[in-house]
Amino acid sequence: MAKRLLSRLGQLVFVLWLLVTVMFFVVNIAGDPTQQMAMDPNVPPEARELQIARLGLDQPLHIQYWTYLTGLLQGDMGVSFHLYPREVSDIIVERLPRTFGLLLIATVVSIIAGFAVGKRVAWLRGTRREHGATIIAVFLLTVFPVWAALVMIWIFAFELDWFPSRGFITTALWRGGPYAANEVFIALLLSITALMLAGFAVFLLSRRFDAPWMRTVGGLGGLALVIGVFLLGWSATPMAEYAANIAYHTVLPTLTLTLLSFGGTMLLTRTAMMETMQEDFVLTARAKGLSERAVRDKHVARTALNPVVASFLISLVTVITGSIVFEQVFSWPGMGLTLLNAATEGDVPLAIGGIISLGFLFMIVHFLLDLVYSALDPRLRT
Amino acid sequence: MTTSPQRTASPAGTDPTGSPQDGGDPTGQRLATGRRQRLANRVRVLRASFRENWALFKRNRIGVVGLVVIAIFAIMAILHPILMDTVWEPERYHPVVGYSAQEVELTVVEEIENPGEEIDLQRAQLRHDPTIQEGETVEDTVQPAPPSLDHPLGTDPLGRDVLSQLMLGAQTAFGMGAVAALTTVIVATFIGSVAAYFRGWVDTVSMRAADFFLLLPPIPFLIFLSAIYDLNMVTLGLVFGLVSGAGSTAIVLKSQALTVAVKPFIDSARVAGASGMQVVLRHVVPNVLPLTFLYMMFTVSGAISAEAILSTFGLIDLPMSWGIMIQTANDAGYILRGVEYWWLLFPAGLAVTFLSFAFYLFGRGMDEVVNPRLRQR
To answer: What SS3 class is residue B142?
Structure first.
């Protein structure tokens, strides 16, 4: 298994290099990216020359590429044109964790919910409830994300007034406050990751009970305990008010993203379940006299989990796209919004940095999925 | 495709029990040789397999619903230039430069001296105008006008007809979808078949390339491209089709082509002296094509959404699209007013959703025809 993962990691590094190379040439073949600056009256010609010298744009393309690649390995991606004196790497370090947090929560919640609903729906095949659930899921999968986000804002921010419609923090609260927004956000992200791991551990432990009712009680009780510890722990720290402020702004984008990626996972589970239900071992399980629930959960769903995890990468594309759209519509400054702004402003270094960092994020998730998959599929456990 | 073996095996004209409903059995042309006969054969087989598959497709109502919705949007797209030429005057109904504000007559009731107080916004619509006396009627224009007989879906904040925009948007969506679909089909079939048939380094290179395109979600890539290049409908479709065709679709098609490439008839063709490319084009490609068309539907579904997203953010060079309609309404602040301005909130957003929904359903319906494992026993 270690060997397989190592070779997988090698392949991913290769693909990442390919990504950097292709992106670099796609952009730089078009010519001098500082031409945009020449038209901006606020940028003096000396600044443009400084940029040209710094980026080495007066040199042949292959030398530029070499400079960029060696710079990248040292974490230097140049300076943003649009947010002028800031380093691209600095902007990425600030904003990538936010997008990562958005993706993490939305992915984990939607995969759990999507799998749980999908396996029940597949069992109801042919009924009206199955058709209804499938149509809703296809709607969520194909709904136009921009429009969905606007409708969510209209419902939750205007009609119900539960959440703010835009932004990452309430500036008035943070001005003069003792913390930087990112400091608090990273603490929040880490604690949420810990919460998720603890929840998963509780789930695994609760399955060791023999009696079904003990499993339910143990699982729910353990989950309540973990969440209680999480909330108590946060309310004891002085950051609590600030963390709550960030969480308050993050609920709506996360909820929208979760809803949209839920549809894809549910459909995937449904299809995988239906393919597995045709297998002979399901007939055997039934013939043994197992209850329908045991057949569903222990025989079909467990087998259907593998193709769901394997093709999850495809739905990750939906989530990444969704994160860009929702960051824009909710004015939530993560990497997606940064990439979009860089594209509109013609800010080449930031755009390359943005797409590479999104690719990097994608690669990490891909690798983690591979880890999960090798743990799930017994054929790979050697 | 699922054709009954007897029918494919017997050449036309020699089968005395030829099914009567086929009707195309040319008894008089029994002497016609070679090419024509083969062509007639092929048409007969195609028709028979089409009828069989159509019956399978029809059984699953989801696919039919998708097809009907696609047809409705296609009719809208085709009807637009006809309507513009005949019934709709360009000055009023042109989707981009037309202008037609609904005129209303208002009676001046009172002049508010101190507008700082609470004003009934439904009534107080006029700016201060010293030439107008109380009791007179004046004409005013309403710009996002509600639906009327003239404008079945009302007008947008700039006084343009929403239905006309919606129909032109359908044209844009279909154009973009067609370009993306064609590119995907050509690229994916070619890469998949060649990689499966030749194996070796061709396979390695194309599959690493596919990994790369998998790692490259099309929409972020298109946004990135728009930083440097001016995208229009055709380039957008080409890039989207390339990313999806050389990426995920190529991987699926390669695995399908692998099962074809080990069949005995491939060996027969090779023994008969066919060159590598001949085998790929005449024997491997036709056998993976049905699956390509299936994945093409999902590509079209994604392409329509991608076009709408990019045009919403103003990154494509297009006169009008559903994304631009949403952007116009949202910039003027009407989307967040909700159902009050429903003709600005729903048509464009639901059009994108329904059309990509329909292509997805159509693809699912075809899935059950192409993939027998999914059929309900």
So the answer is: strand
